[in-house]
Design brief:
Layout: H1 3-23, H2 28-54, E1 57-61, E2 64-68, H3 76-117, H4 122-126, H5 128-135
Antiparallel strand pairs: 1-2
């Protein structure tokens, strides 16, 4: 056990002993709440202790620290294999972006072609009365 953990455990035991001395004078409902709180604290402590034991080693790589196996000797091909999924993801995102840009450009071009080939001038579409005309279904009001 680490020296800091030992010191923390000793301090916790001393605090527990001091609290236990006065606990016999407390009402029942307060002692039950304290017991429940103590159980919750112990459960949380067990969870954090388990998480600490399963954490990977901290390895220094040049001027930075990374999580790793702790063997220290990584080869260039291991780094390349580690980076391959990220490079594949980036390539996929670029392809999707290019495809969406092309689809958007084609859609705008089709709308522009339809506007230019239509009998109505483009300014008619901006007229608020034209919107009302379309809502009525193109019929003339009587």
């Amino acid at each position: 056990m680490h020296p800091n953990e030992l010191a923390a455990n000793r301090f916790a035991q001393r605090v527990t002993e001091q609290l236990s001395v006065g606990a016999s004078e407390l009402p029942y409902d307060i002692t039950e709440r304290l017991r429940a709180s103590r159980m919750q604290a112990l459960a949380r402590r067990k969870k954090t202790a388990i998480q600490v034991r399963t954490a990977p080693a901290l390895v220094t790589a040049g001027n930075s620290a990374v999580l790793g196996k702790g063997d220290g000797g990584t080869h260039w091909w291991q780094s390349l294999l580690t980076a391959l999924p990220i490079m594949a993801l980036l390539a996929g995102l670029v392809v999707i972006n290019l495809d969406l840009d092309e689809a958007g450009t084609l859609e705008v071009a089709q709308v522009d072609a339809a506007l230019l080939a239509d009998d109505l001038p483009p300014s008619a579409y901006a007229d608020p009365g034209f919107v009302q005309f379309l809502k009525l279904g193109g019929a003339q009001p009587h």
